Amino acid sequence: MERTKILVTGGAGYIGSHAVVELYEAGYQPVIVDNFSNSSEVVMRGLEEILGVTITCYAIDCADELALREVFLHEKTLRGAIHFAAFKAVGDSVQKPLAYYHNNIGSLLTLLKVMQEFEVSNLVFSSSCTVYGIPDQLPVTEETPTKPATSPYGNTKKICEDILRDVVAAPDSSLRTILLRYFNPIGAHPSALIGELPLGVPNNLVPFVTQTAAGIRERLTIFGNTYDTPDGTNIRDYIHVVDLAKAHVVAVERLLKGESAAVETFNVGTGRGNSVLEVVQTFERATGQKLNYVIGPPRPGDVPAIYADVTKANRELGFETTTPLEESLASSWKWQQKLIGE
User: Fold this and answer.
1) The NAD(P)-binding domain covers which part of the protein (predicted)?
2) Contact 230/274 with Cβ under 8 angstroms?
């Protein structure tokens, strides 16, 4: 039986590559679009080794309308898309806002235009808990008001969500979309063949932790310890990337079965918050590695604390996370050790 084709923009990236694995293992045929601006072609070899097949990949910019149209022309039976392709670092977006607005919003507009032209109406959108800004209450639910973003990155996600709602509401629109608001993905595939592969200095906590433990970085800087949290450091909801990837498969299935409303929003997290210091201590416990860390000043754009209420995803998607923090961090270390060995 022929597999249902799903376009995966940014499919060679960290979350995208894990979603490709889960899609294929669930019986779908992922088709990747990725210009490798924030990923590596080595990921494609990892995917091939895990799955035992070569996944089709078009090395193009998702914001290039002519190139994207060629993909749709060639892959005639696409049934839907998952849109990951975006720049994603909060701090970097403060430094380079124009690049973030151009890439993150431009790629979505182009994808929507081409999907409409080829009558592909199912879209899972990679959103973010940054749309909640600095929330008044924790945990945040899908009904928690979105607030002015604390970074250009967060604002691009908020704008993209608004664009999708407006497109869905148009009288002649056939678009159905599920917005997945991620919290903080960590960890790596249990095979250690794919994982988070930051180019240059990592912007996320866990790669910096593993690179420090491996001796690649002299020390880990914890940005701020005077926040209004139990130990003074930021609190986040850390979800294993494989669990997060599985949420995309569930969302795709919901769209293809016609079970969703025209636009739906779900938080995808664990429902628990852990501080930066808790992550450091849990990593040390899980791996036996001592970390050299110092306290630095807070970063612009960082939210003191945020974690998810995941009741809606549990109830309506039947989705829940299964991987504890310790196991997630151990998988990150296994991945880092593999990178050192190459």
Assistant:
1) 7-329
2) no
**Helix, strand, coil abundance in the chain, percent, nearest 5:** 40, 20, 40
- Cα 295 to Cα 138, 215, 284, 298: the distances in Å are 25, 18, 17, 9
Q: How many CB atoms lie within 10 A of CB 247?
A: 25
Q: Which of 14, 28, 132, 153 is catalytic?
A: 153
Residue with the two structure tokens 């070569």: 54
Domain boundaries, the chain: 4-187+239-269
CA distance 206 to 185: 9
- Which residues touch 131 (CB under 8 Å, ≥6 apart)? 146, 149, 154, 157, 158, 161, 181
Which residue(s) pair with 14 in the sheet?
Answer: none
Q: Which residues contact 257 (CB under 8 A, 6 or more apart)?
A: none
Could you tell me the maximum CA-CA distance found in the chain, to the nearest angstrom? 59
CA-to-CA distance for 295 and 298, rounded, in angstroms? 9
Please tell me whether the overall predicted TM-score, pTM, comes out greater than 0.90 for this model: yes
For residue 327, the model assigns a pLDDT of: 97
The predicted-structure confidence for 4-24, as pLDDT tens digits, reads as follows 999 999 999 999 999 999 999
Write the CATH number of the domain with boundaries 4-187+239-269: 3.40.50.720
Pairing of strands 263-268, 176-182: parallel
The residues of the chain scoring below 70 in pLDDT are: 342
